[in-house]
């Protein structure tokens, strides 16, 4: 990252355009790397990318092998690649039921979670109300709750509310786990939006709620994207609550469904791999829809200090 | 949460002006309060019903000898009343210094600490190095970023499956090691290698979050600071040490705290990687889950007591962490 210092202009030579042009031949500007540095950077990044990519790629590769022991002799898969596992999973298992459950639960959690964490984030970002500090502390502490302490009491509350084995029950449970972090996240993002915008909105006659929905929310889109993303992935990948609270096998989420697969089909690993790949597709698709906003949204509040 | 205080008065940074007196502030804010409460009400209700109340109830359970044999339950049409009784702090005493307390609690405790420290250190250092690399002007860095975030984009339970295929006896990793004439450990059976594998998989899963957060932090550092440092003749290392690291302090302290909390409570990876087959590689969270849900009879009281202990450890740690940050004149960003 060293910057080249231009050679000193010697006084005995007239400064002609040609001379200046010859200085410009030194093209390396600030922030540009020497060849060696960028080669090393590329090498490291390529290795890291391979490590990041390999387990997923390997899973995809194994899912194409027709036999359940193919993962022990991966070389043999090349000769007999087939999509039979996928058709089997889609046609013979409850995969589509699980897809429906997962989508309902995950999208419901994302929608509700993002809305209520956005309002909460806005309230704690803009307003000073009695109990503010305690509330923030509760939000932080809530993230520390281990599943084990909440599981039994939650189960009893949900069953007395008749919410066991329902979509709504699981959505609410997930909201309680994602909202604290998302509210923190949104607060950080709202903090970066100038307060003058709120004031201008109020002066122009908008209600507080109007200011929030019409002015602030559109500006906070990257932050909302990150909150949605975090909620989506957390809800999608959660295992412990889903396996305890969803009882009928048509209402399993993917995370639970994949577990039952192990015993039901006698550890047919090729089918498991195919299911896993199918499961990964919607999550990854959603991920790459929002990834553009990730870097800006994730630490917006964090970088302010 | 010191960070929000000056912002919430409605002043932008830089021109704070004198703080109005407490009475005036209260009066001024009063008109807005109903609105603030209305906005946080949904969260308060959800958290109150599904987190605070269960916590209180869970704490009560730890003072009893509840398990799946004496709790209220329904078998067919018969409803059986709960018969567990109040036993005070016996559960805690038993966990902390009862017979075989070392095997049941302290060994898992030590392993949990090692696990958290190792994972967070690895997450942070690898994440920071990758973020630094990605923050350069480099051809194809968007592509690199997209690929490097993949472990986060794919749900954990899917990738852990992939890892199980790879780590299995006769899987690709051992085959590769064999071709290289290296020892082939039993990743999923031998305690040491189980732990090693767990840390490895968790590192793989957790780096993208750190990387993206730190990348966001790096991009927010003012470029003119680097220019000034260069003018003063700072070497690359000095620029890193005296510009980059201080610029990242707020982000770092936040993501490290979050990382510690999340790793400490990391349930999915160890649970999915080993199931119930690895009693020695269980961290406290998965061990508590095993006590409460993975064995018969289910021991609800002890499981909840572990949960409360975990929570206590984290709260004490966080308080010290924040005090330490405040002493160093830093604030927690989130």
UniProtKB/TrEMBL annotation, chain A:
SUPFAM superfamilies, A to Z: MetI-like (SSF161098)
The keyword Transmembrane helix is annotated on this UniProt entry: yes
Keywords of this entry: Cell membrane, Membrane, Sugar transport, Transmembrane, Transmembrane helix, Transport
Membrane topology: Multi-pass membrane protein
Subcellular location: Cell membrane
Entry protein name: ABC transporter permease
BP terms from Gene Ontology: maltodextrin transmembrane transport
GO molecular function ontology, one term from the record: ABC-type maltose transporter activity
Record GO cellular component, one term: plasma membrane
Gene source species: Streptomyces curacoi
Annotated transmembrane regions: 34-61, 98-123, 135-155, 167-186, 224-247, 267-290
Domain ABC transmembrane type-1: 99-290
Family affiliation: Belongs to the binding-protein-dependent transport system permease family. MalFG subfamily.
From TrEMBL, chain B:
Region ranges (Disordered): 1-23
Subcellular locations according to the entry: Cell membrane
UniProt keyword annotation of NADP present: no
UniProtKB keywords: Cell membrane, Membrane, Transmembrane, Transmembrane helix, Transport
GO cellular component assignments: plasma membrane
Family: Belongs to the binding-protein-dependent transport system permease family.
Annotated protein name in UniProt: ABC transporter permease
């Amino acid at each position: 990252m060293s910057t080249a210092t231009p050679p000193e202009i010697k006084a005995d030579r007239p400064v002609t355009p040609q001379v200046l042009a010859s200085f410009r031949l030194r093209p390396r500007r600030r922030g540009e790397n020497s060849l060696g540095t960028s080669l090393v950077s590329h090498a490291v990044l390529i290795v890291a990318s391979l490590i990041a990519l390999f387990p997923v790629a390997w899973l995809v590769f194994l899912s194409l092998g027709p036999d359940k022991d193919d993962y022990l002799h991966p070389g043999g898969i090349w000769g007999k690649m087939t999509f039979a596992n996928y058709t089997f999973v889609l046609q013979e298992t409850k995969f589509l039921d699980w897809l429906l459950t997962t989508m309902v639960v995950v999208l419901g959690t994302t929608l509700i979670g993002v809305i209520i964490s956005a309002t909460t984030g806005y309230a704690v970002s803009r307003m000073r109300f009695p109990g503010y500090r305690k509330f923030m502390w509760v939000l932080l502490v809530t993230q520390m709750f281990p599943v084990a302490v909440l599981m039994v009491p939650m189960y009893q509350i949900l069953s007395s509310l008749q919410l066991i084995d329902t979509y709504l029950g699981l959505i609410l449970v997930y909201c309680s786990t994602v909202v604290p972090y998302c509210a923190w996240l949104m607060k950080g993002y709202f903090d970066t939006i100038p307060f003058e915008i709120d004031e201008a909105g109020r002066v122009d006659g908008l209600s507080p709620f109007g200011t929030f929905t019409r002015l602030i929310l559109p500006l906070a889109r990257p932050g909302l994207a990150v909150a949605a993303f975090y909620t989506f992935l957390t809800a999608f990948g959660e295992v412990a609550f889903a396996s305890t609270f969803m009882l009928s096998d048509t209402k399993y989420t993917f995370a639970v469904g994949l577990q039952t697969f192990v015993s039901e089909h006698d550890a047919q690993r090729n089918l498991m791999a195919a299911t896993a790949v199918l499961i990964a597709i919607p999550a990854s698709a959603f991920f790459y829809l929002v990834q553009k906003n990730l870097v800006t949204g994730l630490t917006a509040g964090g970088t302010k200090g | 949460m010191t960070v929000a205080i000056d912002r919430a008065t409605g002043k932008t940074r830089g021109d704070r002006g004198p703080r109005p007196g407490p009475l005036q502030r209260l009066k001024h804010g009063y008109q807005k309060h109903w609105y603030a409460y209305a906005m946080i009400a949904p969260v308060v209700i959800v958290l109150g019903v599904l987190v605070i109340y269960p916590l209180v109830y869970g704490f009560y359970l730890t003072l009893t000898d509840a398990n799946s044999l004496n709790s209220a339950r329904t078998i067919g049409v018969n409803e059986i009343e709960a018969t567990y009784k109040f036993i005070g702090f016996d559960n805690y005493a038993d966990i902390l210094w009862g017979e075989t307390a070392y095997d049941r609690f302290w060994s898992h405790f030590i392993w949990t600490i090692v696990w958290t420290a190792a994972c967070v250190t690895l997450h942070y250092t690898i994440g920071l190095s990758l973020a630094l690399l990605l923050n350069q002007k480099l051809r194809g860095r968007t592509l690199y970023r997209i690929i490097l975030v993949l472990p986060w984009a794919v749900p954990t339970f899917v990738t852990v499956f992939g890892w199980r295929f790879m780590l299995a006896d006769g899987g690709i990793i051992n085959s590769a090691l064999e071709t290289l004439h290296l020892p082939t450990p039993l990743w999923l059976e031998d305690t040491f290698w189980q732990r090693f594998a767990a840390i490895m998989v968790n590192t793989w899963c957790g780096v993208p979050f750190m990387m993206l957060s730190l990348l966001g932090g790096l991009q927010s550092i003012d470029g003119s600071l680097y220019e000034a440092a260069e003018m003063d003749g700072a070497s690359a290392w000095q620029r890193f040490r005296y510009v980059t690291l201080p610029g990242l302090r707020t982000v770092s302290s936040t993501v490290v705290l979050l990382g510690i909390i999340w790793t400490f409570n990391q349930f999915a990876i160890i649970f999915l990687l080993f199931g119930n087959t690895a009693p020695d590689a269980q961290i406290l969270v998965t061990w508590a889950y095993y006590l409460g849900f993975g064995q018969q009879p289910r021991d609800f009281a002890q499981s909840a007591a572990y949960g409360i202990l975990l929570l206590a450890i984290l709260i004490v740690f966080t308080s010290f962490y924040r005090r330490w940050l405040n002493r160093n004149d830093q604030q927690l960003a989130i």
